[in-house]
Amino acid sequence: MLGAASGSVFPGGVRQLGFIVADLDAAIAQWANLGVGPWLATREMPLAGNYRGTPSEPTISLALANTGDMQIELMQQHCDTPSIYQEFMSATGGGLNQVAYWVEDFAAARNAALADGWTEVWSGDAGGQANFSYLERADAPIAIVELTEYNALTRSVNDAIRGAAATWKPGEPIFMTL
């Protein structure tokens, strides 16, 4: 049973909702029509990691925006490389895949989750910028829980995205740069 005795093993609250999509630009347009933007997009980047115990490097595009304090992440894979993104898209056709926690003590949070029965299915270090771990558990209410290292770089990027969202209005440019 999830968090049976002591509540959630994950520190803090959910900070991000992650969606796997077939068409990043179409998904951005749909979210912008709901008043979510502007979007910081990274296109067709290789993301090296460990997928279910095997090295993997899918090419993905992703976009980030905030609505209030909640960040929305959209991810599209551009190749057939085995990955958690390809696995989810094949099984479901896309949609809400993960919730993310941003953690300052990444190793402690990851170790606590593993000790609590979570299985790591995708992990890496985003080119040395920030550690991440995607975790699953059969009794979880969502496919994946992501832990992302909250360090000086990720904090500044996330603060900039949240700040831009606070003043963005539909009809303004849909993309932002840092």
Question: How would you describe the overall organization of this protein?
Answer:
By secondary structure, this protein is an alpha+beta fold. The chain has one domain (16-167): 2,3-Dihydroxybiphenyl 1,2-Dioxygenase, domain 1 (Roll). The chain is 25% helix and 34% strand. The protein contains 4 helices and 10 strands. Strands 2-5-6-1-7-10-9-8-3-4 form a 10-stranded mixed β-sheet. A hairpin with a 2-residue loop joins strand 3 (49-51) and strand 4. The chain is globular. The model is unreliable at 1-5 (pLDDT under 50).
Key features of this structure:
178 residues; 2,3-Dihydroxybiphenyl 1,2-Dioxygenase, domain 1; globular; 4 helices; 10-stranded mixed sheet
Ends: how far apart? 42 Å
Instruction: Provide the succession of SSEs.
Output: EHEEEEEHEHEEEH
Number of strands: 10
Largest sheet: 10 strands, mixed
Strand order of the largest sheet: 2-5-6-1-7-10-9-8-3-4
Mean of residue pLDDT values? 94
Task: Please state roughly what percent of the residues sit in beta strands, choosing from under 5%, 5-15%, 15-25%, 25-35%, 35-45% or over 45%.
Answer: 25-35%
Query: Which descriptor suits the 3D outline?
Result: globular
